[in-house]
């Protein structure tokens, strides 16, 4: 059936790591994605959980997932307490935090302080002070702490990053990153949509709506691929749906370290859009364009010569991109595989020599520092939007 | 991160079924795909295997996959013998056959006769007589026997089939199905490409090359979506690469039951193509177009009104299509998910009331009869190509 | 507004040639296209006409077009007679024949015998005997005789042809040409559609319907780009609409000189299709793909390296392609410009040294021999479809 | 060849209007485009010109275009003087101004004051004071004064505008308009590129570079389609190429009357881009997306139901869009046809009852007021970029 010779087959050798999940019970969305992603390559085994803040639901969800009864808990505190009682070779090594945002901090802090490795959904926490605290703990405890900016796990995003690093784009001049969704184009939070409910609630979602939920993905994608820092922004956040308490639409001008300029846009009221995340980077020697909804392709526009369509899995791609695939070119991979690449990178990090621990970006995942930068970005976006000052600086 | 409300979350309730794999050891390609597909939804657990025809490699591959040592065997005969000694509640329930084609028959026959459910890679076997024998055994033993024509597991292929069934295309007039690959555009079988080696060897691949390997996918895709039988063909198979022993390029005219006409093309010397499987169906009321390399989209051209781009996971799709997804629209799914859908359908079939067993197509997989039809199709293609007779009939 | 440096500006130097038109009066379609195409570059001036077979309509159409009254005629015979009375420096130099097919022969013959240059719409005539006669006359009178296979006038088709000639595709193996339209998906000829009326009438359209109307374009496109002769075909022509008297859907297998194989398809009942002409050529070193509905792009798939998207007007294109454009890349040209390129090529041919007259293909238009080949192709398609003989030879 | 029933055939009835051209001689680009556009539909006849500021070149260019010797002038002043001596029925009715920007004002003023209708390239003039003066003159003299914002002549842009007007998008929330070119990615003005030379020279181009040259197209496109005024902007103009004297890259945030927000981007250093003008408008009921490089398509994303691909010439389009085409759907039209639509609209305006003269936008062209708005926009963009004030208001 399949003829490619470069079939990437993930190593199946290493021992499976034991994982617990907090949040992600029945009716949740992102928890299931994390489980699919973990399952794909078999680097983690989910053995314990506190899958909901409602004890009944937590227990029922654990049963449905086939977790052992004694490792299914009604609260994350119970989960933590029980795990700490287990011998090291039974205890989970990783906790996966997929609750609504407002719960991230206390869970992450508690597990990190106890020395568990952490995978936490984004945005990391509500405030940059919390983020700095988690950075400190992670550093002191020497743990792996990943934040699931999953889009940087796509092989063609990795290819883009490698092309930038290799100088194929020359000096970067212009970055346009945009993320349009339409699912909040009506007041879905009043129509029984659970996702909409918490994501538009400042108490649970934080100070930003669309900017926190998807704008932060755009920020992470742009900075990861270009390797540039955003130095200043000029933002305009807006709420289109009457009664909504957080922004649902935003645009901002960007100024990067090194002189590049650009634009970041995000909207959740972009009617008819599904998950339209796109990145374009224009450099002096060439430009690239990538679109999440067609993730297997990366367009490359060299300064001279015809434009090129690079496709995932091709032998002429950068090695880091080729390694991040499971299937030959033409056999598309997609969202779950990209998400799973994050988990592979995390597993590699956990199983690497602790003495040689490197920044997450070097392994292909966003670490707690990247997550903290994302929180500072959200804070700056909100502040800039409220300000009459044209350029708002970002702390690095 | 994700805002859709219709997140399809595969049921996690049912008991995991125990599976063994024959073939698919280190260096093989398709075995890894089957394992990824099984892993994704957790409906099967791989617990035993005879992963190579070379005992050493078989054992080493089993270790690498984490199989228990006593359930890793150096031959499929040893695997079968051992499983038959186990109590029913330990014994595997399914055998997955991912060897080169020439081994399919004896393995499938032996396991089927012993009452194991079977998933076998395509094409099913070398001859229609063998296929008929397997059909007979499967029927008599009442087993589930699936052939992994995986492309029909794509949600938008399911959507296409449902639209045909619902009459949205009206009377079907024209079917164009094509499958172009370029990986055999040079004599790869002489360049150390293991896949190319056996796929161009009549002893292992059967009487057809490209026609058997990918033309049979095209046949299955076209007939599954349209629900029509191919009644007669006029085929032209050709070998472009000097020294190659099987066809590497083919085209044929098609005549369907009910009067539709069409074309089937396949080539493995289509330089630069990756895995370019496409289907177009033209009906009196509308037409559809689908392309495997952009699998989340289905184009629909109604007789009146603008063309439509249907996207996977949208609420206005047919229920069978919506059920076959894990992620909301805009979060692309791809090859592995489609493959996994076949496994979900097989698991459902195995766990369904045996008294109510239905044709695989009703559940979303190709069964042994579909596989047998595929073998007859390959035989007819070869015969037609050699004949001066314009139209060659297909036995149904 | 426009920044390209390579703006192709058609030479405006040469004297305008005087032209007459037969057919193309009010309500006709293709006549207007010819006039737009002639107008674009100013190489011809339309000064006389017999614009309809209905004298009243002919005269009224002439008035509407601003022709002088004494050069507007009620019949082509009157036009011819009058032109022959004029002094050479007033007489038209070219006759453009845009009547329904059945009138082509007598008009073309009469004007050609009188030494006028001819542009005739396709298909050239009803029978290969008629075509041979026109070939003979054109050769003997030394006239330029063009048949408006307009699609070969597209710059990216010219680019494709040049790439084949330059060996960039290597040995050509496979050719897939297809032309799908949907405008005859219902019985439009019974619904007052004048175009449908004559095109489905054997007396006016000839022995073939879709095959003559659009299949012949596909034949011309494939042979012009590849430079290969079609040696044998196996055709299946069909009529889907009850009561229709000519084929409305066809497919055929192709065998080319030099060993290439392929498929030609055409249909006018392909519901929802507009003017979906596509060509793919697969060679040992690379493949190309072109689609008329996106005519400014040509996809090139080299054997090694990423696929390329060549765009009209780019400096790295072949010189013949660059010459056939008026605008810089990114400023799209389309159908009329391609049609106008045919007229530019005809004007160049007329104004070239008669001693150095070359085949039309060398200048970028189809000449009477290409038109004759097209007629033989149509005859062979109909004969093959009626025959039980698998391969039907084409006379070259 | 062509089967559509709705072949749009431009009326050929009205008398041709006499036109003169100022600028556009040999080596110029845009002049040739204007001539192609005028030629296409035969509504204007070019009979006089002052085709270059260099008298020799002007005369030679006139000869090459076939203008009568006595109507070919070495300066626009000579042209004007001569025309004023001619009797009304010989005198040109329209002057077309296609010089570099800095010449627009004096030529337009002189001809307008003498009562000639004017077509002037964009941006109209260097200052809003000049623009206001031209507005005043045009109003007082009752002339038609068009500014060739040619992109609004595309049929699918007209369709977009009609859909907004008809409420199919609901309340407009978000507008993203962008125009990326790459031809100034190097210092082309130092490499002998004549276009680059004057367009980067403040003396000839005005106070803005990319913003004036292409950003103004983006402004016009966005406001024409949406019917909304831009009330305030926050702009960031930048020059990437060392030594260049005008901006070559810009982005701005937009606030529209009625509350819509958005982004406008333009760059001429976007390496590899050709003429990548795109518009997206997101409304409460639906969104649209259009791209100049694929101008025959308009994507429509309704709030409920599948996305639609509207194609030029389809019977279900708005009447104004259908009228602006010459060919049936599937037979692509492009840049020149869109440009020609402007000329058709101008001819209609000139030949309409002067008592019923309406705004250009009602007829499909940008008039002097639209041109003046464009100049104020450019001034605001430059001022905003230099200011530390976040929001810069636009005078309407």
UniProtKB/TrEMBL annotation, chains A, B, C, D:
Domain GFO/IDH/MocA-like oxidoreductase: 158-288
UniProt domain Gfo/Idh/MocA-like oxidoreductase N-terminal: residue ranges: 18-149
Pfam families for the chain: GFO_IDH_MocA, GFO_IDH_MocA_C3
SUPFAM superfamilies in the cross-refs: Glyceraldehyde-3-phosphate dehydrogenase-like, C-terminal domain, NAD(P)-binding Rossmann-fold domains
UniProt cross-references to InterPro entries, sorted A to Z: Gfo/Idh/MocA-like_OxRdtase_N, Gfo/Idh/MocA_oxidoreduct, GFO_IDH_MocA-like_dom, NAD(P)-bd_dom_sf
Name assigned to this protein: Gfo/Idh/MocA family oxidoreductase
Upper lineage: Bacteria, Pseudomonadati, Pseudomonadota, Betaproteobacteria, Burkholderiales
């Amino acid at each position: 059936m399949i003829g490619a010779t470069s079939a990437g087959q993930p190593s199946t050798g290493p021992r499976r790591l034991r994982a617990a999940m907090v949040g992600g019970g029945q009716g949740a969305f992102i928890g299931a994605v994390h489980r699919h992603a973990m399952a794909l390559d078999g680097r983690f085994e989910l053995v314990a959980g506190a899958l909901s803040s409602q004890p009944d639901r937590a227990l029922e969800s654990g049963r449905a997932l086939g977790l052992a009864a004694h490792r299914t808990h009604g609260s994350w505190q119970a989960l933590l307490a029980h795990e700490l009682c287990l011998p090291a070779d039974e205890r989970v090594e990783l906790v996966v935090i997929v609750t609504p945002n407002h719960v991230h901090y206390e869970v992450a802090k508690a597990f990190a302080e106890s020395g568990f490795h952490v995978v936490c959904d984004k945005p990391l926490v509500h405030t940059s002070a919390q983020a700095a605290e988690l950075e400190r703990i992670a550093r002191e405890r020497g743990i792996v702490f990943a934040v699931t900016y999953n889009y940087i796990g796509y092989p063609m995003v990795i290819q883009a990053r490698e092309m930038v690093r290799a100088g194929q784009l020359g000096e970067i001049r212009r970055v346009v990153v945009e993320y349009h969704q339409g699912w909040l184009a009506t007041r879905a939070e009043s129509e029984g949509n659970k996702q909409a409910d918490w994501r538009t609630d400042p108490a649970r979602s934080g100070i930003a709506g669309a900017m926190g939920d998807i704008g932060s993905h755009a920020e992470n994608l742009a900075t990861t691929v270009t390797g540039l820092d955003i130095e200043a922004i000029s933002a305009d956040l807006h709420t289109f749906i009457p009664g909504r308490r957080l922004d649902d639409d935003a645009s901002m001008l960007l100024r990067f370290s090194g002189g590049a300029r650009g634009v970041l846009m995000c909207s959740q009221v972009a009617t008819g859009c599904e998950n339209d995340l796109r990145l374009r980077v224009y450099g002096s020697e060439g430009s690239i364009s990538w679109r999440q909804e067609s993730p297997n392709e990366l367009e490359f526009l060299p300064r001279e010569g015809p434009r090129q369509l690079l496709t995932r899995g091709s032998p002429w791609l950068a090695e880091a991109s080729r390694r991040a695939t499971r299937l030959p070119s033409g056999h598309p991979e997609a969202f779950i595989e990209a998400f799973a690449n994050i988990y592979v990178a995390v597993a590699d990090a956990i199983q690497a020599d602790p003495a040689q621990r490197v920044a997450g970006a070097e392994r292909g995942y966003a670490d707690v520092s990247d997550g903290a930068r994302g929180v500072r970005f959200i804070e700056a976006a909100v502040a800039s939007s409220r300000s009459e000052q044209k350029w708002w600086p970002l702390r690095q």
